[in-house]
Amino acid sequence: MQRRTLLPLLAALSLPLLAQPSGAPPAAKPPAAARKPKLVLMIVVDQFRADYLWRFREQYNGGFARLMGHGAMFVDAHYEHFPTVTAIGHSTVLSGATPSISGIIGNDWYDRESGKSITSVVDGAQKLLGAPGAASSPHRLLVSTVGDELKSNGRGKPKVIGISIKDRSAILPAGRMADGAFWFDNKTGNFVSSTWYFPELPQWVAGFNTSRAVDQWLNKSWVSIENSKAEPFLSMGAEASEKYYAQMQRTPFGNDMLEMLAEKAIEAEQLGQRGDTDLLSVSFSSNDYVGHEVGPDHPKVRDIAIRTDRTLARLFAYLDQKVGMANVLVAFTADHGVSPTAETQQSRRMPGGRLSEPKMQETVEKALSARYGGMKWVVGRSGPTMYLNYDLMRQMKLDPKEVRAAAAEALRPFPHIARVYTSDDLLAMAPRDFVDRRVRSGYHQERGGDIFPVTEPYFTYGKDGASHGSPYKYDSHVPLILMGPGVKPGRYAAHAAVNDIAPTLSALLEVETPSGSVGRVLQEALLTR
Questions:
Q1: CATH 3.30.1360.150 residue ranges in the chain?
Q2: What are phi and psi for residue 158, nearest 5 degrees?
Q3: How is domain 39-341+471-525 classified at the CATH fold level?
Q4: Is residue 476 helix, strand or coil?
Q5: Smallest Cα–Cα separation from 505: which of 37, 31, 138?
Q6: Could you tell me which residues are beta bridge partners of residue 380?
Q7: Terminus-to-terminus CA distance in the chain, angstroms?
Q8: Residue 163 in contact with residue 283, Cβ under 8 Å?
């Protein structure tokens, strides 16, 4: 009886606890959804080491300053593959994939089916538009990109465009479904494309070529932005020729030319101005050409970095006018870093030197010939990676695994080679450290080679200049900055990979993550939805 009387009383007393107290503030509203961007702008500066952001920071007052001041900057961002070269970096930024999945294993490699060396993008089935010569396309890219997923999701009609001086740098970030990719032809001074995208070069690109805007630097000199009275870094020729075009792209003028084309693309294609989210990928190649010639410690590299800051400021100002930068989601990175030159390292009493890829191949050839007989044991290379002669092995009835092991064993004593992997090692290994992991991530079972030498730190291939390609930090460490709708500005010290850009952009755009992505969403830099 007492229990039956208490139950209604307890129920009545509990009602005020469930209801909102009359004097309390109203319940907090869920946060507003972040504004969808009208345009995604992917910026890659070729061979731009992460430390260039800090080395030259006092001189930045344009694009880099804006990104660093208003973006989410990941200070420990790296590539997680080997070799660290242009084609692989550009295939990674908007796919999130490693070479083991994307199939882009180098700038070029040996194709066993054709028995020839091929580039990452050359495509004999297509025709070049805008100039005579061989065509290129993304047909060797085995995975999707953010642009592909944006176009596949069925919402609206987004446009995806890629531009660069280099074909691979224009093509690979934009992906297989891009509306166009455009790159520079040295012989004619034209921007070109291929029939992969359309039967004829778009009128706005043809008009840009006809205007000869690329010839405006004839008789001009590249002088220091910090000391205009100093001796010019380079003086341009007086005649529009192949020599002039090759010179021009090895100066900041090459980046200025590309920025002009980006403005034309935004205007002609109405990017970010049509009610759909579009994507524009712009890769500035001139920094890489300069860096290879003189190395990261030369005044030319400082100067072109500062001038790139100004070039990006012009692009952002144009976008402010056309789209509004508040509506532009920017991702900025580089495709790889670079090692100091061997001579600079030696002057610092640091490790460093130069190795010869042909001499390494000769070492393997001699060792295998001495052991098995025969003559041509190495049929192709991708940088220092070697492809062995399987036809010869079949003729001599040899076990390929044994031959691969013998080749690696012959190469291990080679001066300043730290490690040598065979394809068998890479398939069976349990990685011990980041070097193992990155070499394994760079191996594609169908397209990869047989012998993978890795130098000691700061040892590079080539007779002069600077280079990159190693798994070490100076080659893997690059900027990673996101800025725009949905991004929480700040400085983030947690480790990040360039592979994280693609899934993060996909999350912000609410599209499927690209098919081969191995990255994570950089959730810490995203505003709560």
A1: 353-461
A2: -65, 150
A3: Alkaline Phosphatase, subunit A (3.40.720)
A4: helix
A5: 37
A6: 387
A7: 53
A8: yes
Radius of gyration of the chain (CA): 27
For residue 437, give the 3-state DSSP assignment: helix
pLDDT value at position 100?
Answer: 98
**Cα 412 to the chain's mean position, in Å?**
31
Residue type, 441: S
Q: Is the peptide bond before 83 cis (omega within 30 degrees of 0)?
A: yes
Q: How far is CA 93 from the centre of its chain?
A: 5
Closest CA to 144 of 86, 87, 103: 103
**Quick one: which of 142, 156, 37, 31 has its CA closest to 506?**
37
Numbered ranges of CATH 3.40.720.10 in the chain: 39-341+471-525
Least Cα distance to 505 among 488, 518, 522, 480 occurs for: 522
Q: Measured between alpha carbons, how far is 235 from 224 in angstroms, rounded to an integer?
A: 12
- 193: nearest Cα among 204, 176, 211, 205: 205
Q: Is the dihedral of CA 252, 253, 254, 257 positive or negative?
A: positive
The answer to whether the Cα torsion of 381, 382, 388, 389 is positive or negative is: negative
Residue 494 pLDDT grade (very low, low, confident, very high; cuts 50, 70, 90) = very high
- DSSP H/E element including 74: strand 72-74
Read off the pLDDT of each residue in 481-508 and give the average, rounded to a whole number: 98
Place of tokens 């993008």: 121
Residue 323 carries which side chain, given as an amino acid letter? V
Region 278-282 average pLDDT: 98
Report which of 120, 235, 126, 134 is spatially closest to residue 168, judged by C-alpha positions: 120
Tokens of 274: 């049509």
Q: Nearest 5°: phi and psi at 161?
A: -130, 140
- Give the E-state strand segments of 123-218 in sequence order: 128-129, 160-164, 180-185, 190-194
The residues, any chain, with a CB within 8 Å of residue 245's CB and separated by 6 or more, are 184, 186, 187, 189, 214
What kind and span of H or E run contains 496? strand 496-497
| C-alpha–C-alpha distance, residues 471 and 18, integer Å | 60
The two three-digit tokens of residue 324, written as one number: 């509004």
Give whole-number Cα distances, 406 to 106, 120, 357, 393, in Å. 25, 29, 18, 13
Phi, psi angles (nearest 5°) of residue 356: -115, 120
Residues carrying an active site annotation: 86
pLDDT at position 528, please?
78
- Distance of alpha carbon 149 from the chain centroid: 18
- Could you tell me which CATH number the domain at 353-461 has? 3.30.1360.150
Rounded CA separation 386/462 (Å): 17
Helix (H, G, I), strand (E, B) or coil at 490: strand
Average pLDDT value over all residues in the chain: 93
Q: What is the dihedral of CA 482, 488, 494, 497, to 10 degrees?
A: -30
What's the pLDDT score for residue 2? 40
Separation of alpha carbons 510 and 110, rounded Å: 38
Q: Is residue 470 within 8 Å of residue 82, measured between CB atoms? A: yes
